FAD/NAD(P)-binding domain-containing protein (Cyclocybe aegerita), 477 residues
Amino acid sequence: MSLSSAQAVRHAVLTATNSASRALQTRHFSWSLPRGKQRVVVLGSGWGGYNVLRGIDKKRWDVTVLSPNTYFNFTPLLASTAVGTLEFRCAVEPVRRYAPQVTYYQAWCDNIDFAKKELKCMPATRPVNAEPTMDADLHPLHERQNSFTLKYDKLIIAVGAYSQTFNVPGVKEHAHFLKDVKDARRIRSRILECFEQANQPFVSDIERRNLLNFCIVGGGPTGVEFSSELYDLLHSDIFKHYPNLARLTKITLYDVAPNILGSFDKSLRKYTEKTLSREGISILTSHHVDRVENGKMIVREQGEVPFGLLVWSTGLAPNPLVKELSRVQKDPKTSSLITNDHLNIIMEDGKPNTDVWAIGDAAKIEDAPLPATAQVANQKAKYLVRKINKLAKDQESPEPFKFENFGSLAYIGNWKAIYDRPTNGAEEGFMQKETGRIAWLLWRSAYFTMTLSIRNKILVPTYWFLNWIFGRDLTRF
């Protein structure tokens, strides 16, 4: 055999060996392999999905998580990250912390075939040959041939909800939302950009006032907390570094309802309105935004209102997956999935699907409406973890879900907060309603203890302390 022939044979052997090795290495990606454990698929990585992921028995279940985000958002701290009180890493927890015990796919679920127990999915990552400027976080950029299907034995729907715009023209194009750490990053960058733009020597005083007019639409806890955190930023670090511009700033809180914080007690609402007014935050209730344009919004009661930053926080809209689902019962007003008190979805024939559960903002218990809050989603997730872990051991868990209201908190600026816990008809007792510094201490301690990882239990108080000593970082990058 010649030298060239021997080399050719050697090359062929090496190629075959490498191909076999690659096949073995990638075999675990096949979904047709025999499995000894039943597959539980969790849709979403929010308060419901992530807490299920944390607690589910991964030794007894083959767990797969499908979510467009590789992280969990600790939503109560997003307003703090948006103004630099905390860094962004303090408000996120990685999903892949539980890999490889858990299989994770960064993807959307487009539809569910309940009869075949099959999910139709679409990758949420940028296509291989896409241009770097394409944003895979905002749009499914894949063509249909890149979609894939996923089988399940048990399914947990915890896809959450989107920001409600009430179809007001221009909101999606010109307003900022605050539901994700990416939103907080954009808001933080825009706040600092407004001051740098207003600081240019050729800008007129009217243009400066317009750039430094910060508008928040939505008088719920998110809107109130963001306006309060923004007040703290403007009257501390911004006033120190932009003393002339800080005097031109204005914060306005809009709401279509006659009062802000509608879910709180009347006395706490009045206290909040009085406190915010003293801090210089304008509260305009019973105001309707007709449309939003670049740098201005049209308010029915005021006319044209210029702004430098508009934050939109007016409630929740149904997730596209929930809107797409058929053969299931939905709430006629919110389009949320209807479940029984064991959190199983109810099919169109009125029977519960014992293999599918729905929790969080995407679901609503039949005849037992609960607020779409992190507290409710968290408790549903913990209940479902107990239920599904017992199911893996062939143990019954007949008790239905029961919500225990631990109260609501809202930060209102200048080291003050409010706390409200309904009495359910009983006489008012200890820690039922609190305001001021005591409620602020309760607010901080509650969110600190709710932080999920040891890392963030260290980072959160550390950044609170560092920013109290050295101030916030106003660098844009």
Observations:
- The mean pLDDT is 88.
